């Protein structure tokens, strides 16, 4: 009888269906999906192709690029636009190295991003394995946090850690290294679910609470200031402070100055906007509230002679280290929106407002009006061959005619970006992306793709110099492949800053007949590049041609390149940074 029972148990065991096995590729994809990731950017290959396919099968959109550099720029911009980490997937070795551009760009601009790279088998480290590199060491200067997954069972927790680290405190880039052997390891489905459940239960750390006395001191400084100013940057845009900022400005009547990517949090056309009176505003203000902007080169380090020696700074920043570095009169560490809400609450109990007749407001408005009128006189002229102002005015008017939701503007290039910053108008938050804190050229197409994916209801318009466009021009194929609503406008002046600008004494030597280091092929047909992939291209050189191309392309909302012929001597070398070159 016992023998029969044993045979029955053996038979039942042999008939039992083996539990499904989950490999490292699928477990990473599941961990990302459970954390809310819905988009990834990257370039696939050994050993991460299966990871990309698994992610897509779960409902994560994978945007495949030609180059990890552009994909990394896309991931960094996506993190800024959405507030959630942008994800970059790369192969090992050189793929990881190419991705460093995106990592560094993300960290320097304080945008959340995670790069995930495959790496060689752990048992073969040091033997010269395929694409072997100490990737943890390679990424170290550019990330907040990095970790190598050493076993499949660590995947859910390690994925959650890098995602959380990228957004906690000052946002930035993080890195996850996944060896090939870990991608191929398996666990049962029940074990995978248990690992995912445990990871889900871990909590994100809370920020530091604000001190009431510091808020009161900040409000007291503002209340007693004779020439107060509010400065805000892309950190404020990332924190979604627009409503809180509007309440503060309209309640107190204090003029404001956005940094380039802070533009649009309040409309550029707001009567208290001091952008057109920038030098006067920062040179004479006695108290400056700086929200989500660092006192770096973009703001002249907060030092004389651009700023008054006696100016008192109220610095609002998410990073304690930044406040300690700058040593402001008052430092408020925390999420910018939360801090502004506290300031608004403190003012509400004892309100004050400068009023439009206040001498400071009158001075700002007068100078801004004078400078705008002076610019409009120049913009009113139709100059052909095109200078930078004529086509920029036509583009400005075409963008404004789109109404709301406003197009997202992507801008890069020396003269193109500098002129565009002064001419193009931002009326809505997070609708301007440019070279940023590092002045990075080559971000354009990556940013365009990120913007189109993050905000599919908006048109994306890139206004680029031909040099900036050239860094990532092949990604126009990516625009066509995914049919993204992007119009790329190339200001074609034949080179970096435009043509050959050398002085006679700089021309000599055995290669003096070579093109100048700043020169490209004259009259390059950039518009035909996108046509090779099925997109639409335009070549324009007159106001009528440009207006027609913009009207057609903005209406169609299909991948387009408009090649705008610019006088090669219209701009200046290095744009507004001539003193650095």
Strand content: 15-25%
Annotated CATH homologous superfamily of the largest domain: Thiamin diphosphate (ThDP)-binding fold, Pyr/PP domains
CATH structural architecture of the largest domain? 3-Layer(aba) Sandwich
Q: In total, how many beta strands?
A: 19
Can you tell me the CATH class of the largest domain? Alpha Beta
Number of domains: 3
Tally of helical segments: 23
Share of helical residues: 40-55%
Q: What name does the CATH topology of the largest domain carry? A: Rossmann fold
Mean of all residue-level pLDDT scores: 93
In short:
This protein is of the alpha/beta class. Helices cover 42% and strands 16% of the residues. The longest helix has 21 residues.
Can you put this structure into words, describing what you see?
The protein is built from 23 helices and 19 strands. With 581 residues, the protein is of the alpha/beta class. It folds into three domains: 21-201, Thiamin diphosphate (ThDP)-binding fold, Pyr/PP domains (Rossmann fold, 3-Layer(aba) Sandwich); 212-366, TPP-binding domain (Rossmann fold, 3-Layer(aba) Sandwich); 381-565, Thiamin diphosphate (ThDP)-binding fold, Pyr/PP domains (Rossmann fold, 3-Layer(aba) Sandwich). A six-stranded parallel sheet has the order 3-2-4-5-7-6, sandwiched between helices. The chain has a six-stranded parallel sheet with strand order 15-14-16-17-19-18, sandwiched between helices. A five-stranded parallel sheet has the order 10-9-11-12-13, sandwiched between helices. β6, α7 and β7 form a beta-alpha-beta unit. α2 (24-34) crosses α3 (49-58), α2 (24-34) runs parallel beside α7 (155-167) and α4 crosses α19 (444-454). The longest helix is centred in the middle third of the chain and has 21 residues, at 359-379.
């Amino acid at each position: 009888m016992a023998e029969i029972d044993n045979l029955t148990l053996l038979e039942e065991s042999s008939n039992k269906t083996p539990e499904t096995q989950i490999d490292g590729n699928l477990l990473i994809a599941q961990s990302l999906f459970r954390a809310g990731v819905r988009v990834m950017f990257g370039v696939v290959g050994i050993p991460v192709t299966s990871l990309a396919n698994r992610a897509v099968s779960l409902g994560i959109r994978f945007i495949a690029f030609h180059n990890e550099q552009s994909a990394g720029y896309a991931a960094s911009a996506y993190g800024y636009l959405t507030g959630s980490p942008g994800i970059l997937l790369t192969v090992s070795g050189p793929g990881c190295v190419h991705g460093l551009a995106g990592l560094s760009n993300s960290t320097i601009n304080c945008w959340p991003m995670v790069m995930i790279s495959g790496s060689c088998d752990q048992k073969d480290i040091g033997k010269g394995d395929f694409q072997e590199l100490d990737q943890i060491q390679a990424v170290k200067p550019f990330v907040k946090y990095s970790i190598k997954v050493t076993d499949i069972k660590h995947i859910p927790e390690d994925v959650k850690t890098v995602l959380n680290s990228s957004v906690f405190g000052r946002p930035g880039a993080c890195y996850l290294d996944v060896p090939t052997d870990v991608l191929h390891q398996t666990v049962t489905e029940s074990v995978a679910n248990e690992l995912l459940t445990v990871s889900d239960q871990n909590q994100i750390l809370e920020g530091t609470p604000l001190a009431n006395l510091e808020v009161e001191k900040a409000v007291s400084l503002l209340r007693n200031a004779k020439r107060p100013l509010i400065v805000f940057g892309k950190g404020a845009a990332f924190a979604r402070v627009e409503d809180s900022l509007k309440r503060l400005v309209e309640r107190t009547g204090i003029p404001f100055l956005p940094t380039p990517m802070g533009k649009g949090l309040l409309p550029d056309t707001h009567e208290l906007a001091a952008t057109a009176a920038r030098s006067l505003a920062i040179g004479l203000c006695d108290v400056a509230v700086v929200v989500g902007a660092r006192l770096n080169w973009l703001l002249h380090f907060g030092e004389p002679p651009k700023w008054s020696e006696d100016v008192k700074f109220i610095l609002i920043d998410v990073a304690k280290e930044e406040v300690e570095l700058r040593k402001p009169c008052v430092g408020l560490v925390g999420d910018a929106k939360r801090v502004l809400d506290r300031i608004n609450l403190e003012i509400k109990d004892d309100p004050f407002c400068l009023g439009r007749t206040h001498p400071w407001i009158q001075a700002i408005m007068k100078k801004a009006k004078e400078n705008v009128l002076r610019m409009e006189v120049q913009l009113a002229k139709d100059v052909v061959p095109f200078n930078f102002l004529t086509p920029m005015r036509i583009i400005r008017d075409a963008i404004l005619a789109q109404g709301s939701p406003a197009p997202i503007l992507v801008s890069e290039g020396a003269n193109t970006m500098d002129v565009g910053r002064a001419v193009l108008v931002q009326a809505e938050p997070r609708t301007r992306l440019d070279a940023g804190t590092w002045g990075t050229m080559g971000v354009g197409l990556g940013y365009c793709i990120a913007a189109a994916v993050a905000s599919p209801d908006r048109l994306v318009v890139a206004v680029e110099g031909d040099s900036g466009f050239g860094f990532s021009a092949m990604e126009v194929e990516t625009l066509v492949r995914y049919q993204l609503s992007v119009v790329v406008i190339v200001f074609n002046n034949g080179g970096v800053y435009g043509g050959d600008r050398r002085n006679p004494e700089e021309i000599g030597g055995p290669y003096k007949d070579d093109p100048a280091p700043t020169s490209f092929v004259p009259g390059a047909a950039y518009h035909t590049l996108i046509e090779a992939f099925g997109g639409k291209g335009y070549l324009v050189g007159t106001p009528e041609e440009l207006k027609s191309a913009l009207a057609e392309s903005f209406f169609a909302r299909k991948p387009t390149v408009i090649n705008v012929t610019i006088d090669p001597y219209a701009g200046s070398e290095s744009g507004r940074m001539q003193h650095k070159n």
